[in-house]
Specification:
six-stranded mixed β-sheet, five-stranded mixed β-sheet, 10 helices
């Protein structure tokens, strides 16, 4: 008689924001990058993916639901992750003197995953998503090996979401990708004064996906070749040093310069790729004028493949800068709805600061702000009530 028992494991994983960007692959299948990169893992209290994986002998096939909608389980990158986790599980089970594998080796899986932030809007949703799926599958199948190389095969930047704090993705040299791994540079509590603001200018899906954009850049951009060979190696070393020493001015300058060069590479691509919009450009103007007024670097911006700004600053400066954002991008909502996440103390933006910055306000340019900080890597959710799948292994809600 078949065993109809359904076992469910639920985990969460974080978003990461690269301050030294990854753009371009030397191997599309294994997702091996042209250069190393470095990121800050954001706190899961504000931005995370949650994934539940169920397994049962009664399941007829593998299935996946993303944000309430069933998707194609045969997506090549997803299959790469599934195959590798199952291979390592079989190896671990076969090499053991006793049964360490908690579930049937041949059981199919049901995967259900949701984000608590906009998907495909340039907020690293695929990184958090694949990191969470790989981490949860590893718990289900009893895999204890290095997981960042597996997550990398789902989405390159997902390997960095396998760790908390400040993380480097070492590009590696081997053709098989076994040395292309993520490694923590410093834990999340290393720099407690560092704060992060996500300025959401658009939660719409970006017009050109990162994969397609990278491929075109690799084929057509001369600047990308220069960046990979002559710029990034030195920047990686300088950025790691700035993080270790908690040197915010250096961290900020490197972050902004690398963001600018990434988007310059997109413009140098043929046809050019435009991820930034008029609101993004105004945020860049605001940051530079704000820093110039105070005579020091108090805030920094970074933009991934989308128009939403990631702002890095220190705890002592965050309240005044948020007031500046509210003034120059007046929202059509109250403060409680405009600022989400970690609380920001109210302060008064003086007329002197407003005049020194001197920008024309852009009403409704910023939809809302997510206030957060560096946070931990993936974790298991112990409360069964938090499962996204019912006891029969199917989603609690679907669309």
């Amino acid at each position: 008689m078949p065993d109809d028992r359904v076992d469910i494991v639920t985990c969460t994983a974080p978003v990461n924001i690269a301050v030294i960007k990854y753009w371009g692959k030397r191997n599309e299948e294994l997702i091996l990058p042209l250069n190393s990169s470095l990121s800050v893992t954001l706190h899961q209290d504000q931005l995370k993916t949650k994934t539940s994986v169920a397994t049962s002998a009664s399941f007829a096939k593998d299935r996946i639901w993303l944000n309430g909608k069933e998707e194609n389980i045969n997506h090549p990158r997803l299959q790469s992750c599934l195959r590798e986790i199952r291979r390592l599980s079989r190896k671990r089970h076969g090499d053991s003197d006793r049964d360490v594998y908690p579930l049937g080796l041949t059981n199919k899986v049901h995967i259900c995953s949701i984000n608590n932030f906009p998907t495909a809007a340039g907020l690293a949703s695929s990184a958090a998503g694949f990191a969470c799926i790989v981490y949860t599958l590893a718990q289900v199948f009893g895999v204890r090996e290095e997981l960042s190389a597996i997550a990398r095969q789902g989405s390159g930047s997902a390997c960095r979401s396998m760790h908390g704090g400040f993380v480097q993705w070492i590009m590696g040299q081997r053709d098989d990708g076994k040395d292309s791994l993520a490694q923590q540079v410093a834990p999340e509590m290393h720099w407690p004064e560092l704060r992060v603001l996500v300025l959401v200018a658009s939660d719409k899906q970006k017009p050109i996906g990162s994969t397609a954009g990278m491929q075109t850049s690799v084929q057509t951009s001369c600047l990308l070749k220069h960046r990979v060979e002559s710029v990034v190696p030195g920047r990686m070393s300088d950025m790691i040093d700035a993080v270790v020493r908690k040197d915010f001015p250096t961290f900020a300058k490197l972050t902004m310069k690398d963001s600018n060069q990434f988007h310059a590479t997109c413009l140098d691509t043929y046809p050019p790729i435009f991820y930034l919009n008029s609101v993004s450009h105004q945020v860049i103007n605001l940051v530079h004028r704000y820093n110039r007024h105070y005579g020091e670097t108090r805030v920094a911006y970074s933009f991934d493949a989308g128009p939403n700004a990631i702002i890095f600053t220190l705890q002592e400066y965050i309240s005044m800068f948020v007031q500046a954002v509210q003034h120059f991008f007046p929202p059509d909502t109250n403060k409680e709805q405009f600022i989400k996440g970690l609380p920001v103390s109210p302060v008064v933006l003086t007329e002197e600061v407003k005049q020194a910055i001197g920008l024309e306000p852009m009403p409704k340019g910023i939809s809302y702000i997510i206030s957060t900080k560096a946070g931990p890597g993936p974790c298991v959710v112990e409360d069964p009530a938090q499962h996204l799948l019912r006891s029969d292994g199917f989603p609690k809600t679907t669309v």
